[in-house]
């Protein structure tokens, strides 16, 4: 993008100079006006054409390799929080975006912010500009920003989005953190067993063959497994890797995702975590949208796309088609049998009192607590089960070796 050198006077009449990046001279002038500066001179920086060509080459390279410009979730959250703070301090939207773009380095986040700034300076609304990057700003984000623009409460809408995504990331981090220790236990156990089967058991096998005699059945089974892993280990790894890749691709398809989500709702303990996370996310998303003035049918559509479970999403879609008056949703949600009675009863109370966002916030807190409790149960149950499983496998290896040793030594009369 071309760079322009400017000399201008700010709102206090102080002479200032600097550089701005804009698509063309007109966009640069508009940007300076948005910054509250009166331009005295504006010239395109030397080498701008060259850098522009370089930028085009980079864009072309990214396009040819299929790379997409996208903010990471934490960067998006930081951008939203800073934008809300700058707007609440009295800055115009264009100047706030320019302030953020000027501080950024050559990253994906900086590229996106500069594009948003240029679109806003040229007359687009922020919600329309956000739609350029659907991978960074989902429909929930765009709809809330549009509602904030329409009601004149853009700062409140951005602050609500920050609160929403902070809670979503917190719930996700709880699940990830809870699974770290069980995964470490499982990984260490698998490596230990594989090491025993490949390096330790073959040495005992050589000794047993030299001593002769018939080995017990468990020992023969152990030796067979060990020999199979040594001779066909590469094939086993190839099959497991291929199966893992095929399964991962399958669950990314609509049918595979639905099958996986249905299985998660059937597994003991895991189903409680899946349901609590989905219901909390649904209530929080729907409540945030309704509180910011999004129509209820559209809010249900967005909640359906962001709930994270296809089975529950299909039930929300079915409930949306059963909503006739555009306001009551507790009855249609209860008719499907997927949503628990507690949730629909709390929704009905919120509709009766006229405080549906407040009821949804209470539902989100209720299922956040249930999510924490279910995660604690899972970790409490899973850790000893994994440790016991690893101990049983290693115990089987040790007992099989000792049985062979005892049989051979007793045969030798030792």
The largest beta-sheet arranges its strands as: 2-1-3
Mean pLDDT over the residues: 80
Structural domain count: 3
Structural class: mainly alpha
Q: Counting H and I runs of at least 4 residues, what is the number of helices?
A: 16
Biggest β-sheet strands, sense, barrel: 3 strands, antiparallel
CATH superfamily of the largest domain: Type II secretion system (T2SS), domain F
Give a quick set of tags describing it:
414 residues; flat; mainly alpha; 16 helices; three-stranded antiparallel sheet; 5% strand; Receptor-associated Protein; 3 domains
Structure description:
By secondary structure, the chain is mainly alpha-helical. The chain contains 16 helices and 3 strands. The protein has 3 domains: 63 residues, no CATH class; 92 residues, Type II secretion system (T2SS), domain F (Receptor-associated Protein, Up-down Bundle), CATH 1.20.81.30; 246 residues, Type II secretion system (T2SS), domain F (Receptor-associated Protein). The protein is 76% helix and 5% strand. The chain has a 3-stranded antiparallel sheet, covered by helices on one side. Helix 8 runs antiparallel to helix 9, helix 8 runs parallel beside helix 16 and helix 15 runs antiparallel to helix 16. It is flat and about 105 Å long. About 5% of the residues have low confidence.
Give a topology summary:
Layout: E1 3-9, E2 15-21, H1 25-34, E3 38-44, H2 48-65, H3 73-88, H4 93-103, H5 108-121, H6 126-130, H7 139-151, H8 154-211, H9 217-252, H10 254-264, H11 270-291, H12 296-306, H13 310-322, H14 330-335, H15 341-353, H16 356-411
Helix pairs in contact: 3-4, 3-8, 4-5, 7-8, 8-9, 8-11, 8-16, 9-10, 9-16, 11-12, 11-16, 12-13, 15-16
